Amino acid sequence: MAQAQGITTAIRELMSCGRPAQSTSPMRLAHTEFVAALAGNVPHPIYADVDSDDLDDRADHLEKVLAALHVYLTVIIADTAQNTPGGTLDRRYLESLFHGLAADAVGVIRNAAEEMREYENWRAS
User: Fold this and answer.
1) CA neighbours closer than 13 Å in the CB half-sphere of residue 72
2) Which one is predicted more confidently, 9 or 83?
3) How many degrees, rounded to 5, is the angle at CA 34 between CA 92 and CA 101?
4) What is the pTM of this model?
């Protein structure tokens, strides 16, 4: 918990240092927007009495984080590809890897929520 507080404090300090210098760099803008998206989407803790709604909320949170990360990665990969000699960076492959990871990560949580919902309904009947 202390480590999480330290990270939160560091982010707050960075954010309170004033507005960053204006930049025309798409990477800098993407980075700033990614950090802002993370700061504005804090996950809620899951406690021992977890229910399916808690898991759905966590999956929603993860989808938002991954959507922000996708935007950031797209800009970084595009810039890297533009500056890679010979066009050796396979952006479609990287895009496919990301979509697979995102779908699997969210899917595991959504599946657990559905199983928990079925269990909750079974117990209620």
Assistant:
1) 15
2) 83
3) 40
4) 0.74
